[in-house]
Specification:
Distance between the termini of chain B: 33 Å
Number of helices of chain B: 15
Largest sheet of chain A: 6 strands, antiparallel
Oligomer: heterodimer
Structural class of chain A: alpha/beta
Structural class of chain B: mainly alpha
Distance between the termini of chain A: 28 Å
Helix content of chain A: 10-25%
Strand content of chain A: 25-35%
Number of strands of chain A: 18
Helix content of chain B: 55-70%
Shape of chain A: globular
Strand order of the largest sheet of chain A: 4-3-6-1-2-5
């Protein structure tokens, strides 16, 4: 706490970063420029970081792709995040009103979704804010002259008038003859699967919503194309009406899998499965059975309240699964 | 510090309390005149809780961070002032008071409340019930088990809540009188003076780690060797910190610092012990029998919490230094609501109690404390 007076947002296990600028790219897309502290190990284009900010007293964490190349970070000491603002979300609305110079926390960069080292042509398929890792990859690849080997083509799908960073894409195209891109909307141009047949011999990269990924994956299987992907199921949708129906979810804890239902508490199901778990009162008072939920949504059996989907402390005895879960016992 | 004395006393007094037969002849103090409508009580108290829960946010996070900052400043200025005693002894006195205040803030408003999970919603990896470790001889996890689980779940159920009299004092007719109860006032004073060690040894005493017959069919989640390890390692760390490390750092001022730390710890022990006794052992606090509490509803649980605790009136600083345990009634009803919110909940809780004809046990510090002392003396005799 004394350290935090000198170094705001200093926290064990996190890196610090200062907000440089926040601006709107479109009605609901937001660009955030951060200056990470010197100790932050840089990223490889395509990787993501976890961003933690304080929202009404609560430290809230979300994962974002770093939307710039490592060369950009080297030159400017800044990194860029681009996100869609989800008004119902826990973090992005607060992010849109964050003021420059605020200190926030970030994690080291993680993820294997990077430009493959291949002599084959590359096909990039982006959906909505899934454009971000590709911008980063292209920036670095062109900077380091890696694109002359084989052509790179980008299919960029988004809702009408929601394509962002087109000027940057054009600039990149000017710098590298081998790079081409197409700006598409499903409404006008049809589904992604209609565009894939010409690229059977390419290495495919796809980043976008789950539905889009599924389509690409099916075609890739048919034509036997190599496929790397990063797909997001945004927020797991929870249908309150269906809570009375019995549903089964998967629970990951300390590397083990268990299937759990949404009727009984997580504690009683872990006990039935003979898992070692500390417990006490069984009614949410004593916090003995508390553990860290890494991801997924749980319902508080006392209030019916749904939890956040990111990392949080939960009490097993008063929590029921609402989505697939990962916890740390 | 002679911990041996306490260990022995505790053992001698606890061993006989194992027969359940004696609990059967328990005579509870007169219950409140009429039983309340438990379901209605539950709805009303739940409503008070959810109303406050909606308000919890940035303000509460800023509050606990500010208190932690003040605590750190008190601690370090205290430790520095202790070394300046050779310039002017009054500086040493200020150092003792500052360090004692730091320890009290750490144990009460920060440690106790954070370890209750009151600030877990913040998702802060330093301010949560799993991580926080306090400046006291008692291992945080051990306290969590005995206090958060046993004491808060089974509040004042004779035989289940070992906090009722701590196995040392006879505070109701639920326990058969023994000759040693004649001098339990002295035992009480001793317990107060050594309170941090009493708290620390508490779980091991009950688990009969060192002495006494092991209770059969006690399912324990933590092995005795683990308990011993944690007890000695945390205890030793505290002793080394206050009586070796910091005195040595002071060099020639070794004794100034050593005695300062000793007195600061003593002040903290007396303060915490007194506040806690006022919260649970005033004259009107009731006890319960295990068989009455089987399958109890949440409403009945609320009812038991309400009659098993007592409040102390006081000013702003007083409430902070007690860790808001001056609102013991509200704390027992809502143990994981940030404690500073008890202030605004209290009038509403009191109104609900009144409606149900339940006694809302509150009074000035001296009134409550006299009542505690009377109770200790009263049950010294058969």
């Amino acid at each position: 706490m004394l350290v935090q007076q000198v170094k705001p947002a200093w926290r064990d296990g996190y890196y610090r970063a200062q907000v440089e600028a926040v601006r709107n790219l479109s009605s609901d897309m937001l660009e955030v420029i951060l200056t990470p502290e010197k100790a932050w190990p840089s990223h490889i284009a395509g990787q993501h970081i976890a961003l933690t900010i304080e929202v009404n007293g609560r430290l809230t964490t979300r994962v974002f792709t770093v939307a710039c190349g490592a060369s950009f970070h080297r030159e400017t000491k800044n990194i860029r995040l681009i996100t869609k603002v989800n008004n119902e979300g826990a973090l992005t609305p607060a992010l849109s009103s964050i003021t420059p110079n605020t200190w926030v926390n970030i994690s080291a960069a993680k993820g294997n979704f990077t430009l493959p080292n291949t002599d084959k042509p590359v096909l990039m398929v982006a959906g909505g804010s899934g454009i971000t890792p590709f911008i980063a990859m292209l920036e670095d690849a062109i900077e380091n002259n890696l694109i002359h080997r084989a052509p790179v083509h980008l299919l960029y799908f988004a809702k009408p008038n929601e394509h962002v960073l087109q000027s940057e894409l054009l600039a990149l195209q000017k710098r590298a003859n081998n790079f081409t891109f197409a700006v598409l909307t499903r409404q006008k141009d049809g589904d992604v699967k209609d565009y894939l047949s010409h690229f059977a011999d390419a290495h495919w990269l796809v980043c976008g919503p789950n539905a889009m990924y599924e389509q690409v994956r099916e075609v890739a299987k048919l034509v036997r194309a190599t496929l790397d992907s990063e797909h997001f199921a945004a927020l797991p949708t929870v249908n309150i009406g269906s809570l009375s129906e019995k549903e089964t979810f998967s629970l990951m804890h300390n590397g083990q899998h268990l299937s759990v239902n949404n009727q009984k508490s997580l504690l009683s199901q872990l006990q039935e499965a003979k898992q070692p778990v500390t417990y006490g009162c069984g009614m949410g008072i004593c916090h003995q059975c508390q553990c860290v939920k890494k991801r997924g949504v749980v319902r508080d059996t006392r209030t019916g309240e749904l939890s956040d989907s990111a990392e949080q402390l939960i009490q097993l005895c008063v929590s029921q699964a609402v989505t697939d879960l990962e916890i740390q016992l | 510090m002679n911990t041996r004395v306490l260990i022995n006393t505790e053992e001698r007094q606890q061993a006989p309390s194992k027969t359940d037969a004696r609990l059967q002849q328990a005579t509870t103090p007169p219950q409140s005149v009429s039983k309340p409508d438990y379901d209605m009580l539950e709805t009303q108290l739940d409503a008070i809780k959810s109303e406050v829960k909606d308000k919890i946010g940035a303000e509460d996070a800023a509050y606990i961070r500010r208190i932690i900052l003040i605590q750190r400043i008190c601690e370090w200025s205290g430790r520095i002032l202790l070394m300046l005693g050779f310039l002017q002894p009054l500086l040493w006195v200020a150092g003792v008071l500052s360090l004692a205040a730091a320890k009290i803030l750490d144990n009460m408003e920060i440690g106790h409340n954070v370890m209750h999970g009151q600030y877990d919603w913040m998702n802060d990896s330093h301010i949560n019930s799993k991580r926080y470790e306090w400046d006291i001889a008692c291992d945080g996890a051990s306290w969590n088990r005995v206090h958060n689980y046993e004491h808060h779940t089974y509040t004042n159920i004779i035989g289940k809540d070992r906090d009722f009299g701590y196995g040392l004092l006879r505070l109701s007719n639920d326990f058969r009188w023994r000759v040693k109860n004649l001098w339990q006032f002295a035992t009480y004073i001793l317990l107060s003076v050594m309170f941090q060690w009493g708290v620390s040894y508490h779980e091991m005493a009950a688990e009969r780690v060192f002495f006494g017959k092991k209770k059969k069919n006690r399912k324990n989640q933590v092995t005795h060797s683990e308990l011993k390890k944690r007890f000695f390692s945390k205890g030793a760390r505290q002793l080394v910190k206050d009586y070796v490390l910091f005195p040595l750092l002071a060099g020639p001022l070794f004794l100034w610092v050593l005695s300062g730390n000793l007195i600061a710890n003593l002040l903290r022990n007396l303060w915490t012990s007194t506040i806690i006794f006022c919260g649970h052992f005033t004259g009107d606090v009731e006890t319960f029998k295990a068989e009455d509490c089987k399958n109890e509803t949440r409403g009945q649980w609320y009812y038991r919490q309400a009659l098993g605790s007592s409040n102390i009136k006081g000013g702003n600083l007083f409430h902070i230094l007690t860790g808001h345990l001056s609102f013991q009634v509200e704390h027992h009803l809502f143990p994981d609501i940030p404690a500073r919110r008890y202030r605004e909940m209290a009038p509403k809780v009191q109104a609900v109690f009144k409606q149900h004809g339940m006694h809302y046990n509150t009074g000035s510090f001296w009134k409550q404390y006299t009542s505690v002392l009377k109770r200790i003396v009263r049950y010294s005799f058969p």
